Amino acid sequence: MARAVVTPLRVAMIDDHEIVRTGLKHILDGDPDFVVVGEADDGPSGVAMVDAVRPDVVLLDVRLPSMHGDDVCRLLAERAPEVKVLVLSAFGEEELVYRCLLAGARGYVLKDIVHFDLKQSLKAVARGEAVIDPRVATVVLERLRQGDQPPKHPLTPHQFSVLRLMAQGLSNREIAERLFLSENTVKGYVQEVLRRLGARNRLEAVMIANRKGWL
User: Fold this and answer.
1) Could you please report the per-residue DSSP string of 137-194?
2) Please, are residues 53 and 76 in contact by the beta-carbon 8 Å criterion?
3) Using CA atoms, how far apart are residues 1 and 24, in angstroms rounded to an integer?
4) Burial of 65 per CB tally in 10 Å (0-12, 13-18, 19+)
5) What DSSP element (H or E) covers 59?
6) How buried is 8 (Cβ within 10 angstroms: 0-12 exposed, 13-18 middle, 19+ buried)?
7) Angle of the 202-212 helix axis to the 183-197 helix axis, nearest 10
8) pLDDT of 3-62, one tens digit each?
9) Percentage helix, strand, coil, to 5, in the chain?
10) 158 with 189: CB under 8 angstroms?
11) Segment among 61-75, 98-112, 127-141 with least mean pLDDT
12) Are 193 and 159 spatial neighbours (Cβ–Cβ below 8 Å)?
């Protein structure tokens, strides 16, 4: 009887540390159950890469140089909803990873990969299961159970993403490139952010958001 052909799980990585990407590829290379189909070192190029290769699972670092991890999760959920996201984090990232889970990530594992089985985690997420590293599961799941939310703000998710990029000093054109939006759309978001926060300019909007604990 012929042996059934197993289709390998297609994995992509978004992480700004080359040594981490190399280590992850080393774990997956040579295993017929997996194939690495793409990698990127920041959020915008990562979203574009996922758009192009459509992997089954994305391994996503939460700390990227150009975008917050939850903004990347939100963009991936909108542009490629069939792609599962497994977040990678270092210790002390519970708040950001929690926001990633709210934005659509399916799992959370710590970067010291000796302590978790990467392959089983990838397969579980691909099946639609949730994977939470046991060392932080109690904290994260308790927050989810209680419905604890980040500090409330009057902005939509896209407006909030624009605000956070405004806080980094980016122009409307740069924000449009990061979020895959038109410059006119970003201009409209900026104007609405100012209106909703009661700010006269971009700097004042960022100062208000900082004072409220939103950034």
Assistant:
1) HHHHHHHHHHT--SPP-S--HHHHHHHHHHHTT--HHHHHHHHT--HHHHHHHHHHHH
2) no
3) 35
4) exposed
5) strand 57-61
6) middle
7) 60
8) 555 789 999 999 999 988 998 888 888 889 999 999 999 988 999 999 999 999 999 998
9) 50, 15, 35
10) yes
11) 127-141
12) yes
Cα 189 to chain centroid distance, Å, stands at 21
Structure tokens at 150: 């980040």
Nearest to 59 by CA among 87, 33, 25: 87
Domains of the chain (ranges; CATH) run 9-146 (3.40.50.2300), 157-212 (1.10.10.10)
3-state secondary structure 80-103: CCCCEEEEEECCCCHHHHHHHHHC
Per-residue pLDDT tens over the stretch 132-169: 877 777 766 676 666 655 557 788 878 888 898 888 88
Joined tokens for residue 25: 């590829």
Helix (H, G, I), strand (E, B) or coil at 128: coil
Give the C-alpha separation, 183 to 173, whole Å.
6
